């Protein structure tokens, strides 16, 4: 049977707050539909081709690890950009999201060059934007997660949605994340996918459509998962 091939970039460096849970969520929800999944951990990129990649994933990391990872990913910048332009679904979290832009400026003014795949930038401050976050998204409904970042990201692309509680991209415009073609960038850890199966399914469905794999219903139902999410959101909003 044809499998969905996930490329997990720099899993040893970019795995803050359990971001690897996103890979588990993608794998489980594919398998519950009878779809096989293959995960390739990418630690070195020289000569890497992404032509058989169905989903790309980059997690978050500290400024230090982000700098090391950026150097490595620079080697496949053009490959990565064409995959995104071709509509390959991708999820990038926090540090992984930031470095798709032009630059990341640390709180002490040190400038880290980003991959410049998209036209945006991030400036960091010492005061961190931390806590639980709830977003209202036209595409995914309500999204819940946890954020902890010094970076403030500014862009004019589509977003994941409007922030109801928490910060999101920065501390001014009340928007969270970035949505361009099938690329999602977000500040949400937690990790995001086990808490928000709508996003997991969006990525899987996009991957299946590109590969002509049938994306059917789950073998088990996920009412418990949906109820758990509703309980978390209700509690967070009532604490506001
Ligand atoms: N270095 C980034 C920041 O603090 C990313 C942190 C993260 O991935 N959680 O803004």
How would you characterize this protein structure?
This protein is an alpha/beta fold. It has one domain (4-238): Rossmann fold. It has helices spanning 21-31, 63-73, 77-85, 95-98, 192-195, 197-211, 223-239, and strands spanning 3-9, 36-42, 55-58, 90-93, 103-105, 111-113, 121-137, 141-154, 161-165, 175-176, 178-180, 183-186. Strand 11 and strand 12 (183-186) form a beta hairpin. The N and C termini lie far apart (48 Å). The mean pLDDT is 94. Glutamine binds at residues 16, 60-63, 66, 94-95, 124, 148-151. Belongs to the CobB/CobQ family. GatD subfamily.
Summarize the structure.
The chain is of the alpha/beta class. Helices cover 30% and strands 30% of the residues. Helix 1 (21-31) crosses helix 6.
């Amino acid at each position: 049977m044809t499998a969905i091939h996930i490329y997990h970039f720099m899993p040893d460096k970019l795995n803050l707050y359990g971001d690897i849970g996103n890979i588990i969520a993608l794998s489980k929800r594919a398998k519950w539909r009878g779809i096989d999944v293959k995960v390739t951990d990418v630690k070195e990129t020289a000569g890497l081709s992404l032509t058989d990649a169905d989903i790309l994933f980059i997690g978050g990391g500290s400024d230090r690890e982000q700098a090391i990872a950026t150097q490595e990913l620079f080697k496949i910048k053009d490959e990565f950009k064409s995959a995104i332009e071709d509509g390959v679904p991708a999820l990038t979290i926090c540090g992984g999201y930031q470095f798709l832009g032009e630059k990341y400026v640390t709180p002490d003014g040190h400038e880290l060059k980003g991959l410049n795949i998209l036209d945006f930038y991030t400036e960091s401050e010492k005061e961190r934007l931390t806590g639980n976050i709830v977003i209202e998204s036209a595409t995914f409904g309500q999204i819940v997660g946890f954020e902890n970042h010094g970076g403030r990201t500014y862009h004019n692309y589509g977003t994941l949605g409007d922030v109801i509680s928490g910060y999101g991209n920065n501390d001014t415009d009340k928007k969270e994340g970035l949505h361009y073609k099938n690329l999602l960038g977000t500040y949400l850890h937690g990790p995001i996918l086990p808490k928000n199966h709508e996003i997991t399914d969006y990525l899987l469905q996009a991957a299946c459509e590109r590969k002509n794999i049938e994306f059917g219903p789950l073998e088990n139902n996920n009412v418990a998962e949906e109820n758990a999410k509703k309980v978390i959101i209700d509690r967070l909003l009532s604490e506001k």
